[in-house]
Design goal:
- The structure is a single chain.
- The protein is of the alpha+beta class.
- Strands 1-3-2 form a 3-stranded antiparallel beta sheet, covered by helices on one side.
- The N terminus is likely disordered.
- It has a domain of about 40 residues.
């Protein structure tokens, strides 16, 4: 039987903006997509956003982070 070690950014039931800010550092909060609950996004969601909105997103542990166009 294996044990699961606590990761420094283990998923909580609900991540707050403060949790996400600590995780991603000094990026604008608008880049973190919250249309889906953080931690639940998949690669399908990344493709859907690109196809529907022509926006590029990164998927980081189930969290969608919009790429900066600059």
């Amino acid at each position: 039987m294996s044990t699961v070690r606590d990761a420094p950014y283990a998923r909580k039931a609900e991540l707050t903006l403060a949790d996400l800010s600590q995780r991603f550092g000094p990026i604008p909060s608008w880049r973190i997509r919250t249309t889906l609950p953080p931690g639940t996004a998949t690669g399908v969601d990344v493709l859907r956003i690109y196809n529907d909105e022509c926006r590029l997103c990164e998927l980081v542990d189930g969290i969608l982070v919009e790429k900066d166009a600059g």
